Amino acid sequence: xxxxxxxxxxxxxxxxxxxxxxxxxxxxxxxxxxxxxxxxxxxxxxxxxxxxxxxxxxxxxxxxxxxxxxxxxxxxxxxxxxxxxxxxxxxxxxxxxxxxxxxxxxxxxxxxxxx
Amino acid sequence: xxxxxxxxxxxxxxxxxxxxxxxxxxxxxxxxxxxxxxxxxxxxxxxxxxxxxxxxxxxxxxxxxxxxxxxxxxxxxxxxxxxxxxxxxxxxxxxxxxxxxxxxxxxxxxxxxxxxxxxxxxxxxxxxxxxxxxxxxxxxxxxxxxxxxxxxxxxxxxxxxxxxxxxxxxxxxxxxxxxxxxxxxxxxxxxxxxxxxxxxxxxxxxxxxxxxxxxxxxxxxxxxxxxxxxxx
Lengths: 115, 232
Ligand SMILES: Nc1nc2c(ncn2[C@@H]2O[C@H](COP(=O)(O)OP(=O)(O)OP(=O)(O)O)[C@@H](O)[C@H]2O)c(=O)[nH]1
Ligand SMILES: [Mg+2]
Ligand SMILES: [Zn+2]
Fold this sequence. Notes:
- The complex is a heterodimer of chains A (115) and B (232).
- Chain A is an alpha+beta fold and 115 residues long.
- Chain A has one domain: hypothetical protein PF0899 fold.
- Helix content of chain A is 25%, strand content 32%.
- In chain A, strand 1, helix 2 and strand 2 form a beta-alpha-beta unit.
- Chain A is elongated.
- The relative contact order of chain A is 0.25.
- Chain B has a single domain (32-216), classed as P-loop containing nucleotide triphosphate hydrolases (Rossmann fold, 3-Layer(aba) Sandwich).
- Chain B contains eight helices and eight strands, in the order E-H-E-H-E-H-E-H-E-E-H-H-E-H-E-H.
- In chain B, strands 4-3-5-2-6-7-8 form a seven-stranded parallel beta sheet, with helices on both faces.
- The A-B interface holds A 1-2, 5-6, 9-10, 12-13, 17, 21, 23, 27, 31, 35-39, 85, 87, 95-99, 102-103, 105-114 and B 1-15, 93-95, 97, 125-126, 128-130, 151, 154-156, 158, 183-184, 186-188, 190, 231-232.
- Bound molecules: guanosine-5'-triphosphate (GTP), magnesium ion (MG) and zinc ion (ZN).
- Zinc ion binds at residues 73, 75-76, 78, 89, 91-92, 94 of chain A.
C-alpha cells in the first residue's frame, strides 16, 4: 500500500505550510478524499497516526471528509449520489451508467490554535 | 482561539510539479510517452517484448521497467531487442513516482527515440495516484482477472486513455466477459479506448501496433504548461 508514502508527503506539505505561514499550532488537518482517487481513507489514517508520533505533528489530528460519487443513468437520466459503485440504475434498471466525480484528493483546510 | 486556514492544494503536489517538468522535457524532445499499469502478471512485459520484436529498427523505443525487487523485466526487454532499457528497482515501494523517473531519464540518451514506455510496478491501485509526466496511461487487464476490476479499482481506469484486455487466448476458460469489462470501464471513463489482444496467439496485436503508430506520428506538440494532468 502506498498510503505510507502518501502520509509522509502529506506531512511534508503541512510542515511546509506551517513554516511558510508561520502557524503556531495545527490542531487538525482536513482532507477531502474521493472514491476515484485511489487513496484508501482508513489506510491513510492508520499510516498518518503511526508516522506523526515523535514529530512536530504529534498533536495534530487528521480528519478525512469522503467525497461522494454522482452516478447518472444514460437511459432515464436519473442522477444519484453514492459511495458504492452501482451496476444498475435504481430507478429503471438500466446498466448504462456513468460515474462522475470522486477524484478529489486535497487538503481542504488546516485548523490552527493561537496561544 | 481556533482559526481555519483554507489550503485547497493537492497532497501530492510535489510529485505533480516534478511530473510537469518531465512532461515539458519530453515535449521539447517531441517524444510521446506511455505509462503501463496493471496488476502483477497481466502481461505488460510480454506485450512489450512482442512490440520490440515487431518494430525492430523502425522505431527506437526507450523503456523504463519498474520492479519492486529485481531487474528481471529490464533484462527481458533488453534480450527482446530493447536498445535503451533502464530498470527502476523501487526496493519495496509499490509504485513508481516522478522523482524516480526523473532521475533515470536524466541519464538516458533520448535523442533519436520515437517513443518512451514506462512499465510500472505490477499494482492496480497505487500507481494511479502518481503522475509520471507521461502523455497517456495505459491500463492492462487480463482475462484471467475479473471483468469487474474496473469497478473495484476505478482510479486507474478513470485516468487511463487506453484499456488493453490481455490474454484473450484464455477467454472461455473463465467467466470473463469482454463486453461486460468494456461496459464497466466506460462507466468509469466514457472516453477510454479499448483494445483486446493476446501476446501469445498474436490475436489483436495489429490493433495495438496501429494505436502506437498513431501516437508516434503526432505533430510536434506545444510544450504544456506546468498545470499537469487535468484529471488529477
Ligand atoms: N496465456 C497467456 N499468457 C500470457 C500472455 N501474456 C503473458 N502471459 C503470461 O503471463 C505471465 C506474466 O506475464 P508478464 O508479461 O511477465 O506480466 P507483467 O504484467 O509484466 O508482470 P509483472 O511485471 O510481474 O507485474 C507470464 O507467465 C506470461 O507468459 C498471453 O497473451 N496469454
Ligand atoms: Mg513485468
Ligand atoms: Zn435509469
